[in-house]
Amino acid sequence: MSNGLSRLFKKIPLHAIVIAIVLVWITPSLGLFVSSFRPADRIASTGWWTVITSPSELTLDLYRQALAGEGMAQSFMNSLFISIPATVIPIMIAAFAAYAFAWMSFPGRNILFTIIVGLLVVPLQMTFIPILRIYNQTGLTGSFLGIWLAHAAYGLPFSIYLLRNFFGSLPRDLFESAFLDGASSFDIFFRLVMPLSVPSLASLVIFQFMWVWNDLLVALIYLGGTPSVAPMTVTISNLVNSLGGNWQVLTAAAFISMILPLLVFFTLQRYFVKGILAGSVKG
Amino acid sequence: MASVTYEHVYKRFGEVTAVNDLSIKVEDREFLVLVGPSGCGKSTALRLLAGLEEITDGTIYIGDRVVNDVAPKDRDIAMVFQSYALYPHMSVYDNMAFGLKLRKTPKDEIKRRVEEAAEILGIPHLLDRKPRQLSGGQRQRVAVGRAIVREPKVFLFDEPLSNLDAKLRVETRANISRLHQRLQTTFIYVTHDQVEAMTMASRIAVMNQGILQQIDTPQNLYDLPDNIFVAGFIGSPAMNFFNASIRKDDGKLYVDGGAFSVKVPEERIPTYEAYVGKPVVFGIRPEDIHDPNFAPPGIDPQPVEANVDVTELMGNEIFVYLNSGDHNYVARFDPRTSIRMGNNVQVAFNMANMHIFDRDTERAVR
Prior knowledge:
By secondary structure, chain A is mostly helical.
C-alpha cells in the first residue's frame, strides 16, 4: 500500500513534465480550433482565450464560409481521387520490390538497393523542373495520372526501404518451408509475406496517405490551380487570395481538411505504433 | 519410399568447404542420423538433399533419379525445421494443408490426410488453433504433421528436438521412432546430440569439418570407433584418451602410460604387435573403469593406481574424476562404492574393451 503510494509520488514529477510538454504542444492547435468557432472580426481583435469569459460568441460562421467557398466539395472529391491511387500504387510497387530485394537473389541487388536508399535524400524540389518538362511534352501536366505518378515516385524510396527491412526480418525457415511445400515466389508473396506484413503496410498507408492529402506544393506544380482537378489544399490556399484579407476562414478550412486524415489515423492507429516497431525491432 | 545416395558431394561457400566428398547410401526405409558438432556440415548435407542449397560438385540421387537440378518441391521430400517454421497466421489445419492445397489436392483428400496425421500425432483437438496458441511440443508435432500429410518418399529432420525441454525431448524421441516404424519411410535426421543419434538411428553417420568420419549402426559405432574423433564424440561422458606406448615384455604386450602400465589381452597381441615401441593413443570408456570391489564378472581387469579428484553422484552411478600421474580421466562407478574425494585407490581397467589409435593418423588400430 505505502509502497504503491510512494511509487505514485515518485512518478509525479515525470507526469508533470509530460503534461507540460503536451500542453505546450497542443496550445497552438487548440487556439486555432477555438478560433475557428469565433466571428472573424473578434479573431482579429482579441485572443482565442477570451471565449472562456464570453462563450456566447461561439459561432459556425467561418465553417459556413469555408464550405460555401468556391469548389470546396469538388476539391474534396479531387483530394480523395488523388490520395487513394497515390497511396495504393507506390505501396503495391514497393511491396513487390521489397520482396525481391529481401528474398530473391539477382545480380546488382545490393547496388540497386543502395541507390534507392540514396534517393531518400534527394530533395523533391530538385525534380520539379526536369519532370515538369517531361510532363509538358507528354501532356501529363494537369492530369490525375501525372500526379499519381509523381507521388508514387516520391513515396517509393521510403516505402521500399521500410518494407524491405520488415520483409528481411521474417524468418528464413518460413520461406524455405514454403518452397518445400511447393510454393512459388508469387504464392509466398501473397499467402505469406502480405498477411504477415499487415502492420507495416498499414503504417505505410498512413504515412503516404497523409503526405499526399496534406501536400500543397506537388499538387500546385503538376496540377496547377484548375478547380476541376485542384485538391483541397490548393482550394483552401486560394480561399485567402480570393477573399483578400479574410484569412480567418483558413482556421475552419484547416479543420475541415483534417477530418479525413484523422479518421484514417484513428482507424489504423492500432497498427501504427506496431508497424513502426515492426521494421526495426524483431518480434 | 526411396533410397538416397550422396556420391562424392561437395559444397563450398567461398573459401569454406562445408561438405567435403560426402558419399553415403541411405537404404529405403532406413533411419539415418547425421551427427556431429556444430559447423560440421551435417545441416548443409541435409539442405543439399532438400534442394535449399545448390551442390558445388557431385551427385545426389533420390531413388534412381538424379536430383541435382530438380526443384525442391519436385523432390518428393518433406522437412521438419528446427524452428518448426509454422505459418503464424494460419490455423494448424491450414498449416498442414498448405502444401496439399498448392498441389491442387482435392479438398476431401486434404481433409482425410490432415485428420489422419493429426490422429497419429494426437493433435486432432488443436486443428483450429493458431501456432502462437500452442506449446513448444505441440508446435513440434504440427511441424511433423505438415511433413506427414505430404506422404513424401523421404523425411528430413533438421534438429527438430533442440527447442524442447529435456523431458519432452525424451518423449518426442520415442514418438519419432514410433512414427518411423509406422510410416515405413526413409528418415534422414540431423542432430548434434549423440544421445538422439544413438537412440533413434538404424545407422549413424558421424561428420566433422565437412568430412564423413564413420557410418555404421549405433552399437558398432560405439564399440568399434574408426578414429579418435568418433570415439570421443559418441558416448557420454566421453572416452578417456591417454598418450601411451606399447611395450613388449616376456611375450606379453603392455600399454605403458608412464604412471600406469596395463596388460593387453592375449587375443589382441597380433593386432598391436606392429606398434611395439611406437607412440599410440590408448582409449578406454568411463564404464570400463571399475571399482575392483564391484567389477562385474567376465571382464579383463587390470589394476591402476589413481587419485580421486572429484566424485559426482548421479543416483544410479557415480562419475569419479581420477588422476594417475599427469593423466586425468573419468570413470563410472557403481553407486555402492566407498571411494571418496582425495582417496588414493586402485581401480580396474577392463582391457577387453580397450582401444588403440595411431597417434599420427588418429585411426583405430584393428
